Amino acid sequence: MCELFALNASSPTAATFSFSGFSARGGDTGDHGDGWGMAFHDGVDCRLFIDAGRACDAPLAEFLRRHPLRARTVMAHVRKATQGAVALANCHPFQREWLGRHWLFCHNGDLGDFRPRLDGPYQPVGSTDSEWAFCWLLQELRRVFGRRTQPPGWADVAPVLADLVAQAAQHGRFNLLMSDGFALYAHASNKLSWLQRQHPFPRAKLVDRQLEIDLAQANAAGDRMVLLATAPLTEGEAWQHFLPGELRVFEQGRCVWQQQPVPLITPADETTKA
Amino acid sequence: MCELFALNASSPTAATFSFSGFSARGGDTGDHGDGWGMAFHDGVDCRLFIDAGRACDAPLAEFLRRHPLRARTVMAHVRKATQGAVALANCHPFQREWLGRHWLFCHNGDLGDFRPRLDGPYQPVGSTDSEWAFCWLLQELRRVFGRRTQPPGWADVAPVLADLVAQAAQHGRFNLLMSDGFALYAHASNKLSWLQRQHPFPRAKLVDRQLEIDLAQANAAGDRMVLLATAPLTEGEAWQHFLPGELRVFEQGRCVWQQQPVPLITPADETTKA
Fold first, then answer.
1. Which of B99, B108, B208, B238 is most deeply buried (CB count within 10 A of its CB)?
2. Considering the entire predicted model, what is its pTM?
3. How many CB atoms sit inside 10 A of residue A259's CB?
């Protein structure tokens, strides 16, 4: 299995504090030591760092903990290899271009035998079920929005993506993060948490490292951001858990769209039958 | 204008020494201080670092000078913005996927009004003529090799690419590097040099920095590599200049394919006419 992290903010924001805690899970407080990746995504600007070592002590991870790169969306992944060898080609996030925007994708879980036909322009470079699923998602989005010459916004993408993700999630656990640099899409099958941060900012204490900061010092009063992680990164903050099957879209540091799975049997039906 | 650097080797090789000299051209010995990039490409493994600052003193460039990442193909670029703003989205190398391989592309020069129609799956994310040309090259390669399900090798790609590059080069200067992780393609319009290194390895002294190493200490007797740069990086080694319009392919540290432009008027014709 793997772990996911993301930040989505109203202004370009550093994630050094969060990544200090999260990267410990890559071989120290967690056994996800088979590679890691971190991406900074802000509109059309996209920089992706991947490494086949352990995030807890890789020199490149140390560089990213010490140098505050800023973006409106930051995404990170620590990997425990289940499908696909330990190799750079299998490190998340994966990246592809669609309609002049880079798309990034991270996955935690497993998709069993899910190998849909890839007859579009995207093919996996590595050997993970995750990258295969990413290629399929973009292929199907292209199919739906085929006539567009401009990239669709999240309001158009979200319901289509929710439907596609639900199809894939029938085959296994599909906890995922996906970004086009403008919106952050997140889906949980079984494990993903999120946290809204805004004025008044509290003090925050990491779960994975002896590190604590005053967020009011680190942020301006008007800043607003959302953090996502497989498991909460800080103590004493109001992390919320995704429901199984839930998809949320974040933009400018807030949740702008949400779809919860529709129960096939409602509680009322249950009562009637009983 | 910009400057290009590449290394292609028979085994995964570090480029810290060469990059120490080359990166000085990004704002110190050269005025190419509008962003830079460096990529390590080895089969399906591909890691790309880009930065909108100056390669001569950016912290990330210092990290790459100090930490010897290894790959069979290494590529770097320092940018002086001519078309497109100073922005991460406009930093080379550019990256796209085709048939399950990442492709990387760097350009030095300008392509004037060359804006061929892009009706395939690749669209530029930034605003440079370079990325536009790269999208067009891959679009046309896809068109030619459309029925393939496996990526074509360099022997198939090279003549097709040579023809495409010649078309684009009619519009301006098209000095370029392109890699699929297995072969390195290089074309010069007006300025590109290359150097073969193999046993017996000499001492090498950088042009741009007071730095000298004994290559026999840094390499094993069986190692073989080629270096490419807009202008020679070392003193006292036998750098060769590309002819205008020449395309070469490098694989496993040697030149495996070469196409020189066919003169429309041969010297004999000239004599006859005179």
1. B108
2. 0.94
3. 18
